[in-house]
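Good morning C.,

I know you're traveling, so I'll keep this short. The sequence:
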Amino acid sequence: MDPHLLRNLHGPEALRARLEGEGVSRTTLSFYRYVRLNEVDRLRDALYAEWKALGVLGRVYIAPEGINAQVSVPTAELERFRQALDAREAFALVPWKIAVEDDGRSFLKLIVRVKKKIVADGLADDAFDVTNVGAHLDAKSFNRKMEEGALVIDLRNNYECLIGHFEGAYLPKADTFRGAIEEVVEMLRQQPARVPDQGARSVDPLRAPKHGEGGPGRSDPAPEILLYCTGGIRCEKASAYLRHQGFTKVGQLHGGIIDYARQIKAQGLPSRYKGQNFVFDERLAERITDDVVSSCMQCGTPCDRITNCHEATCNMLLVQCEACAANFADCCSPSCREIHQLPIEAQRAWRKGRSTRSTKTKAINDPESLRRRIREEEELLALNGTLHPELTTLISEHPYGREISRPHQ
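The tokens, ready to paste straight into the viewer:
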């Protein structure tokens, strides 16, 4: 097949218009499986052709270690999509997780990419047994173990935890999965030891006791560790890694937050997860409960509306209320607002040669610094009329300079 037919050839606006005009119901779902795959490049091309014919959109990673997929399937084609998966032995009967909230606009195009790993964890898989995973727990068991005092750990990045998390969970400060794993291991090792009685030796309570530790009267000092993430895939690798590090009492929420939400609804269970669930598609979030656990980074009002700064060279994630979105033109700061309000050709000229901030850091993680920056920039803007003196040169060198001097409001 012509390789040009195995990739998207259209821009985002054309894709968005096509999606809006197709007039069909869609179902957003995700699935993963760790399984040995051969000839992944050939498999990639076959999957792309097969799924494009069914109208599937989404983001799919395949690697020698397996598949990780988040897709939007025309609802009428769900059965055919299931049959196509089951026809391949490697993917037969792979469990699906259906999105909690779905407006049919989760993805604009189909991307199937070959990767070294289906999750970028940075771990040396040959250094530990990746199959020695923690116990898979359903929603009811997870709730019960939380009530019994288990230590709950969020394995998502800092910006995912912003808008929702389990009650009392440890929330990593890291903005990468590898960073979160390292942070969690360090946190666990620094936990204070519990001494049940005067005769027992001080032992790290979160590590499995070695031969000879403990003694008469010593109770089991190791609380159970409960891991959770969006759909469960990160917990598979992380739980095996923690067990390799000596933390043997590890459980993980099977199916992640997505399936937890389905189970508590179906079984009438209380939700120990509060707020929204961050998702990596056009929706950005899906609501699990009505609780608001975060606040606007620009004004501090309670809010869990997460968005990207619309200035293309920024694109940073932030929590922003509707009022601040209007005030800052969907941007994170006056500086970004000034550029974003320029005519599109002027924006492109200004962006030329500039790197995007979010390639280094995905999200704003210091609201106080952001608010201070906003105050300082507003003062400079009132004093100088611009936060970008370089625009003067741009105005003089380009025919649309007169337009630039009057930004769109």
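Safe travels,
E.
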